[in-house]
Amino acid sequence: xxxxxxxxxxxxxxxxxxxxxxxxxxxxxxxxxxxxxxxxxxxxxxxxxxxxxxxxxxxxxxxxxxxxxxxxxxxxxxxxxxxxxxxxxxxxxxxxxxxxxxxxxxxxxxxxxxxxxxxxxxxxxxxxxxxxxxxxxxxxxxxxxxxxxxxxxxxxxxxxxxxxxxxxxxxxxxxxxxxxxxxxxxxxxxxxxxxxxxxxxxxxxxxxxxxxxxxxxxxxxxxxxxxxxxxxxxxxxxxxxxxxxxxxxxxxxxxxxxxxxxxxxxxxxxxxxxxxxxxxxxxxxxxxxxxxxxxxxxxxxxxxxxxxxxxxxxxxxxxxxxxxxxxxxxxxxxxxxxxxxxxxxxxxxxxxxxxxxxxxxxxxxxxxxxxxxxxxxxxxxxxxxxxxxxxxxxxxxxxxxxxxxxxxxxxxxxxxxxxxxxxxxxxxxxxxxxxxxxxxxxxxxx
Length: 446
Prior knowledge:
446 residues; mainly alpha; 3 domains
């Protein structure tokens, strides 16, 4: 979120319970929004631990490893989605505060358990309707499709988020701003998001009676499926009761195949984020008639002239269960290299959020640009594009220059010394490979 400045420290017990929305109103009620902790930021170590645990259990129980290319793409999308929060407060909270300050007609007590529970149900109901609209309105789907573009289903998928989605979701929460204090709303907005992390796993099958009330891994696997029976179902955030009430609940049946009905087949982060926006743009201009053009934007992703609002299910691609995900061969050394450089970037990214109040505007700008450059380069490497070597040599040179002048410092001991070894070697290796490519290209044209 990046919206909150509360400095309250969490115990390990609270940190674990935070990930499952098991908090008591007394320990998560605050009078002002400035006091609300940034729970999402504090969840970072728990994300990492749970990711590692899932990797270990998946490998030992099923012999299944997380694909580096897909996993890093999901993590890259998560990083990109949060970068705007470095320089501005999120639109969901900003608009909520504006309505509360100017138009509230009842001020419920911030420290009442009744207010806490009302916000719990209100945020979850708002999320259900936003999530449903994100699948049924094409322009909103343009943002949300990023989250569904992974053809794997694991905890990295939970972090594959869109930087566009937040510019639509605020609309479904603003009715609460007439009576629920912003500090209470801000707590539940974060907990609702954190709860949805752990349900992105194939390791948990059935939770018994809880399946009737809560959104569970089984229910959410269906939501991510492209099987015909999975489409347009299970939109709940924390609770599954809204789907049962509004007729969108579907239980898990045969094996779920994940991804998009029309796979994007790319690991390049900007492509992952905006490819459907590009599709809408071209479809809008190619579709005749103003009514049809507006329908391209505001009806479902599967709509076309003469079709119902959400399109025709019979036109969906056949799913056999034998589908293979997009997975170009990647040498093991390149997987290790991409993994190392992603986590070196992550150290800079994490420090930027921790120190954003004391870093200069120029430093923040240069860090954001460097992070975007890094994610783009890693995407090119994962796809082994011809331009990847020269671009990676340039990126490593940029890092060396910015680090020398103090723009990429962190608080991690010895990290600077490690980078002073890794990056010059990387510049030399990729520079040499780019030179060889250039020479080979010259010979072919002679």
